[in-house]
Known about the structure:
Blueprint: H1 2-10, E1 15-19, E2 22-26, E3 33-40, E4 46-47, E5 49-54, E6 59-63, E7 70-74, H2 77-86, E8 95-100, E9 106-111
Antiparallel strand pairs: 1-2, 2-3, 3-4, 3-9, 5-6, 6-7, 8-9
Amino acid sequence: MIRLKTLLEQYILPKAYAYNGHIVIIDPKTNTPYHYELEVDLAFDISVTIIKIDLKSKTITYKHPVNGNVLTVDLQSKDIAKIAQEYNQIEKGDAIDGLETTEGRKLLLTRIS
Length: 113
Protein backbone atom coordinates (compact mmCIF):
# COMPACT_ATOMS: atom_id res chain seq x y z
CA MET A 1 0.00 0.00 0.00
CA ILE A 2 2.86 2.39 0.77
CA ARG A 3 4.42 1.68 -2.62
CA LEU A 4 1.14 2.51 -4.36
CA LYS A 5 0.81 5.75 -2.40
CA THR A 6 4.33 6.71 -3.44
CA LEU A 7 3.46 5.92 -7.06
CA LEU A 8 0.36 8.12 -6.88
CA GLU A 9 2.36 10.97 -5.38
CA GLN A 10 4.78 10.83 -8.33
CA TYR A 11 1.93 11.78 -10.63
CA ILE A 12 -0.04 14.93 -10.10
CA LEU A 13 -3.64 13.85 -10.40
CA PRO A 14 -5.20 15.71 -13.30
CA LYS A 15 -8.52 17.49 -12.89
CA ALA A 16 -11.40 15.46 -14.26
CA TYR A 17 -15.07 16.24 -14.66
CA ALA A 18 -18.17 15.05 -16.49
CA TYR A 19 -19.23 17.02 -19.57
CA ASN A 20 -22.03 16.06 -21.98
CA GLY A 21 -21.94 12.47 -20.75
CA HIS A 22 -18.23 11.88 -21.19
CA ILE A 23 -15.08 12.51 -19.14
CA VAL A 24 -12.83 15.52 -19.59
CA ILE A 25 -9.35 15.26 -18.09
CA ILE A 26 -7.34 18.49 -17.87
CA ASP A 27 -3.55 18.26 -17.96
CA PRO A 28 -2.39 20.35 -14.95
CA LYS A 29 0.87 21.31 -16.67
CA THR A 30 -0.53 22.52 -20.01
CA ASN A 31 -4.27 23.00 -19.27
CA THR A 32 -5.00 20.85 -22.33
CA PRO A 33 -8.38 19.06 -22.17
CA TYR A 34 -8.60 15.40 -23.13
CA HIS A 35 -12.10 13.98 -23.76
CA TYR A 36 -12.81 10.33 -23.01
CA GLU A 37 -15.77 8.01 -23.42
CA LEU A 38 -16.25 5.28 -20.81
CA GLU A 39 -17.34 1.76 -21.68
CA VAL A 40 -18.40 -0.59 -18.91
CA ASP A 41 -18.71 -4.39 -19.00
CA LEU A 42 -16.77 -4.88 -22.21
CA ALA A 43 -18.49 -8.16 -23.01
CA PHE A 44 -21.51 -6.06 -23.99
CA ASP A 45 -19.57 -3.04 -25.33
CA ILE A 46 -21.77 -0.56 -23.48
CA SER A 47 -20.96 3.13 -23.58
CA VAL A 48 -22.32 4.97 -20.55
CA THR A 49 -23.30 8.55 -19.75
CA ILE A 50 -21.00 10.03 -17.12
CA ILE A 51 -22.69 12.07 -14.41
CA LYS A 52 -19.73 12.66 -12.10
CA ILE A 53 -16.09 11.64 -11.78
CA ASP A 54 -13.77 12.23 -8.84
CA LEU A 55 -10.23 10.88 -9.18
CA LYS A 56 -9.31 11.84 -5.61
CA SER A 57 -12.13 9.80 -4.06
CA LYS A 58 -11.72 7.23 -6.87
CA THR A 59 -15.41 7.19 -7.90
CA ILE A 60 -17.36 7.46 -11.13
CA THR A 61 -21.13 7.96 -11.24
CA TYR A 62 -22.81 7.06 -14.52
CA LYS A 63 -26.19 6.34 -16.04
CA HIS A 64 -26.54 2.93 -17.63
CA PRO A 65 -27.96 3.34 -21.17
CA VAL A 66 -29.98 0.11 -21.19
CA ASN A 67 -31.75 0.05 -17.83
CA GLY A 68 -31.37 3.75 -16.89
CA ASN A 69 -29.95 3.01 -13.44
CA VAL A 70 -27.54 5.53 -11.94
CA LEU A 71 -24.54 3.70 -10.50
CA THR A 72 -21.51 4.85 -8.55
CA VAL A 73 -18.46 2.62 -8.85
CA ASP A 74 -15.14 2.72 -7.03
CA LEU A 75 -11.95 2.61 -9.05
CA GLN A 76 -8.89 0.71 -7.92
CA SER A 77 -5.89 2.79 -6.85
CA LYS A 78 -3.68 1.13 -9.45
CA ASP A 79 -6.13 2.17 -12.16
CA ILE A 80 -6.11 5.80 -10.98
CA ALA A 81 -2.31 5.68 -11.26
CA LYS A 82 -2.59 4.20 -14.75
CA ILE A 83 -5.02 6.92 -15.87
CA ALA A 84 -2.79 9.64 -14.38
CA GLN A 85 0.21 8.21 -16.21
CA GLU A 86 -1.37 7.58 -19.63
CA TYR A 87 -4.26 10.04 -20.22
CA ASN A 88 -2.15 12.57 -22.15
CA GLN A 89 -0.21 9.97 -24.15
CA ILE A 90 -3.20 8.28 -25.79
CA GLU A 91 -4.04 9.23 -29.38
CA LYS A 92 -7.61 10.03 -30.45
CA GLY A 93 -9.45 6.75 -31.03
CA ASP A 94 -7.11 4.75 -28.78
CA ALA A 95 -7.97 3.64 -25.25
CA ILE A 96 -6.70 3.10 -21.76
CA ASP A 97 -7.64 -0.52 -21.19
CA GLY A 98 -7.20 -3.06 -18.43
CA LEU A 99 -9.13 -0.94 -15.92
CA GLU A 100 -11.46 -2.56 -13.40
CA THR A 101 -13.71 -1.33 -10.61
CA THR A 102 -13.38 -2.69 -7.09
CA GLU A 103 -16.58 -4.69 -7.81
CA GLY A 104 -14.94 -6.36 -10.82
CA ARG A 105 -16.58 -4.42 -13.68
CA LYS A 106 -14.26 -4.03 -16.67
CA LEU A 107 -13.74 -0.46 -17.91
CA LEU A 108 -12.33 1.04 -21.08
CA LEU A 109 -11.55 4.76 -21.49
CA THR A 110 -11.46 5.73 -25.17
CA ARG A 111 -10.14 9.13 -26.19
CA ILE A 112 -12.68 10.91 -28.38
CA SER A 113 -10.93 14.28 -28.81
